[in-house]
Specification:
Blueprint lengths: L4 E7 L2 H17 L4 H21 E15 L2 E12 L1 H16 L3 H9 L10 H10 L2 E7 L2 E7 L12
Antiparallel strand pairs: 1-2, 2-3, 3-5, 4-5
Helix pairs in contact: 1-2, 2-5, 4-5
Length: 163
C-alpha cells in the first residue's frame, strides 16, 4: 500500500474475488470515499477481477487503486492489468466500441441482459460498471497486455482521510 492508494499483484481465483472486493472497499474509504462511492469502487473491482480470473493468462493481474487530486477534491482511479489471449482482446475491443457508442449506459446494460449477446463470454460485467457503479471505463492494449481503468467522479474526501 502507498500513501494515496494501493497496488496488488495477484493470482486471482474466483473465490478470492469477494475477499479482494471487501479489501478494496476498505481502502477506498481510507482514501476518503463515502459509503456509496466505496461500494461502487468495490463493485468495479469485483467485475474486473472476475474477468482476470476467467480470461487472464494464469489468472494473474495487477490491481491499483489511487486517489488523484482534482481541484478541491479527488478522483479515484481503479486499474487492472493482465495478459490474455488474442480472441479475448478482439472481444474487448468490440465491447468497448459498443459501450462507447451507446447513448445510455443503463439501456445498453439492459440490452445485453435481454439479448443473445450474453451467450458469448464476457461483456455483461463490464457493461455493469458504467451502468451501476457510475465509473468511466478506459481500455489500453499493448500486445497481449490489457489494462482497464475505471475513474470515479470528483468527490470531496472525508475530513478523516485528508490527514
Amino acid at each position: 500500500m502507498f500513501r494515496n492508494g494501493l497496488e496488488l499483484a495477484l493470482v486471482i481465483s474466483p473465490r478470492m474475488v469477494s475477499v479482494i472486493r471487501r479489501f478494496v472497499e476498505e481502502i477506498a474509504e481510507r482514501l476518503g470515499a463515502d459509503d456509496d462511492l466505496s461500494s461502487r469502487v468495490a463493485l468495479t473491482a469485483h467485475e474486473l477481477l472476475e474477468n482476470v480470473a476467467k480470461y487472464g493468462v494464469a489468472s494473474e493481474g495487477v490491481l491499483t487503486l489511487e486517489a488523484r487530486p482534482e481541484g478541491e477534491g479527488r478522483r479515484l482511479l481503479l486499474t487492472v492489468t493482465n495478459r490474455t489471449m488474442a480472441g479475448h482482446i478482439d472481444r474487448l475491443r468490440q465491447m468497448f466500441r459498443d459501450m462507447d457508442a451507446a447513448e445510455d449506459a443503463f439501456a445498453y446494460y439492459f440490452h445485453l441482459m435481454n439479448s443473445s449477446a450474453v451467450d458469448e463470454p464476457g461483456g455483461l460485467g463490464l457493461a455493469r460498471i458504467p451502468a451501476e457503479a457510475d465509473m468511466r471505463l478506459a481500455l489500453s492494449l499493448v500486445g497481449d497486455e490489457v489494462t482497464i481503468s475505471a475513474a470515479s467522479g470528483v468527490f470531496t474526501p472525508s475530513p478523516e482521510a485528508t490527514r
